[in-house]
Amino acid sequence: MSTAAVTDKRPSTLRGASLPKWTPWAIAAGSIAVAVAIGLGTGLDSRIQWGLIAGLLFLLATYGVAARVEGRRQAKDRIATALVWVAFVLAVIPLASLIWATVERGVKVLDVYFLTHSMGVVADSEPGGGIYHAILGSLEQVGLATLIGAPIGILTAIYLVEYGRGNLARAVTFFVDVMTGIPSIVAGLFILSLMLMFDMQPFGFAGSLALAILMMPVVVRSTEEMLKLVPNELREASLALGVPKWRTILKIVVPTSIGGIITGVMLSVARIAGETAPVLLLVFGNPFINANPFEGAQASLPLYIYQQYSQSAGSQAAYDRAWAASLTLIAFVMILNLVARGIARWKAPKTGR
Amino acid sequence: MAKRIDVSGLTAYYGSHKAIEDISMTVEPRSVTAFIGPSGCGKSTFLRTLNRMHEVTPGGRVEGKVLLDDEDLYGHGIDPVSVRREVGMVFQRPNPFPTMSIFDNVAAGLRLNGNFKKSELQDIVEKSLKGANLWNEVKDRLNKPGSGLSGGQQQRLCIARAIAVEPKVLLMDEPCSALDPISTLAIEDLIGELKERFTIVIVTHNMQQAARVSDRTAFFNLAAVGQPGKLIEIDDTERIFSNPSVQATEDYISGRFG
Where is the ABC transporter domain (chain B) (predicted)? Predict the structure, then answer.
C-alpha cells in the first residue's frame, strides 16, 4: 500500500460537503410549487399570500437543507443570502408592477396629439384633449424652483462644509434637518398665507416658491456629502500654492465634486416634479395654455393627474388621460435621472493614463 | 531669489493642546535643511507654521516670530495668501488635482492666482516640468489627467506645480515616504538641483536621506506623549551624524533610545 493511497483516504480538514450551484434555484422552484399547491389546496385567493408562503418556505428549506448537508455555519451564510434575495424580490415586485401598470394603461392615449394639445375645449368627461398645458406648467414651475432652490442650497452646503464653525453652522444644520421634514402641504400653506396677505390670485411662480422650499434641504444635504468627499489634501495643495480660499473652493473643490452635486440637484428636481399638494393650493390648475408663470392659474402634471381622476365623474377617457400623464411624468423623472448619471460620469475625475 | 528664514520663540497649538514649544532656528538661503525626529514630535507642525498652513487646521494657532528676510510672517497685516506664494509646499502623499490635465496641474498656481501672461504659460510649464525632471516622461501627454501618472511621477508633478509659481522657499513634508527607492532617488537628485535656486526645508523619517540630501539637520524630540515637541539641536548634517552635541540625538540616530 503506497502512502498516496493512505493520504487520499484521510478526510480533508479543508474540504467539506457542499451543495451544488443550482441548489438555491431548485429550492426556490420547489418552494413556489409547494406554495401554489398549499394555496390551491386550502383555497387561498390572494396571490400575495402565495408569494409570502413561498418566501417563507424558501428561507426554511434553505436553512434546513444547508444545515443538514453543509453544517451550521454555511447554513447561516446561506440564510443571510436568502434573506437578502427575498427582501430584494419583495421590493422589486411592487416597483415593477407599478411601472407595468402605468405603461400598460398609459400608452392607450399617449401620442403626439396628446402631448401637443391642451384640455381647453374638451370637457373632462369626454375623450380627446392633451397635456401640453400641464407639461408647460410643470417645466416652468420646476425650472423656476430649481433656479431659486439649487443655488441657495449649494451655497448653504459650501458654507457648512468650508466655512461653518460653531453655533451658526450648528443652527443652520438643525434647520436644514427640520426643513427636510416639512410636509409639502405645509410649504404650500406658508406661501398661501403670504399670497392672502397681499391679496393675490393663484399663479405659477407661487408654486415654484413652495417647491423651492421643499427642494433646498435635499440639495443642501446631498451637496454637503459630496463636498465632504473632496480630500482635504487637495484644498491644502491649492492653499499652499498661494491660492485664496474662495478661489480654491470655486476652482478645485467644486469642480472635483461637480458630478455628485449635479446628481443631487437632479434627484431633488425629480422629487419636486411629482409634488401635488402645494401646486393644488397655489397654482390652482387651468385647462387652457398659460405660458406666463407670473400671472394667472397654470396646470402641472401631478395636478392634472389628480384633477382628471377626481373631477371627471368616473369617465374612462379621463382615467386614460390620467394614466398617460402619469407615464409622461415617470418618463420625465427617469430622463432626468439618466441625464444626472450621464453628467456624473462625464464630470467624474479622470483616472485614465 | 531664495530667502533666509529666521524663527524665534515659536510655539504652536491645536486648540488648547501645545504641539511644539519655543523653537528658534535659522535656515540659510540656498541650502537644504532636514528635520528628523520620532513621529508626533511636531516636525510637520513646525514645517506648516513656516508658510502659515498651520492655521488652516481648525483650532491651529501660533505664537512667536518667523522672519522671512526680515519680514515677520505673523506680523500685523500680513496676508497668509501672499506668504504661501513665497513659501511653497510639497506634501507627503502626491496630490495632483484630479480634474486637471498634467499641463493644467502645473499651470494651476499661476492660473488660479491670475498673474500670468498666456504666452508665457507654455514656457513656464515646460521649465517647471524640466526643473522637476519630469518633462521627458510627460511631454507627449500633457493633456492627459495627472492622476494617471505613477506615484513617483505624481510627486514630481506636485514639485513642478510648486516651483511653477517661483516661490522663495520650498517646504517638503516627507516627500518620499510613499515612494519606491528609485523614485526616491529621482526626488533626492532633484532636491540637490533645486537648492541652487530655492531654500529647501525637508521633513523626513529616513535618516540616510537626511544625511544624503541636507546641509544642516535639526533633531526634534518630545519628552513624553502629550508633551509639546521641542527642537533638541540643529547643526551641520555631517556633525549631527558623526558627533552630535546632545546625547538624545546620538541615541536616536544610532537606534538606541528610550
Answer: 5-247
In chain B, residues with a C-beta closer than 8 Å to the C-beta of A350 are 98-99, 145, 147-148
Q: Let me know if B56 is exposed, middle or buried by CB neighbors in 10 A (0-12, 13-18, 19+).
A: middle
Interval A326-331 mean pLDDT:
94
Please state the domain extents for chain B: 5-93+169-254
Query: Which residue type, as a one-letter code, is found at position B49?
Result: T
**Contact across the interface for A240 and B112, Cβ inside 8 Å:** no
Check if CATH label 1.10.3720.10 holds for domain A116-347.
yes
Round the average pLDDT of chain A to a whole number and report it: 89
Q: Does A351 contact B108 at a Cβ distance shorter than 8 Å?
A: no
Domain boundaries, chain A: 19-106, 116-347
Q: Is the pLDDT of residue A221 over 50?
A: yes
Q: What is the DSSP code string of B189-210?
A: HHHHHHTTTSEEEEE-S-HHHH
Please state which of the four CATH numbers 3.40.50.300, 3.90.1150.10, 3.90.228.20, 3.20.20.210 is assigned to the domain occupying B5-93+169-254.
3.40.50.300
For residue B168, what are the contacts with CB-CB under 8 A and spacing of at least 6?
B1, B2, B3, B68, B69, B86, B87, B198, B199
What is the model's pTM?
Answer: 0.85
- Contact check, Cβ <8 Å, A349/B53: no
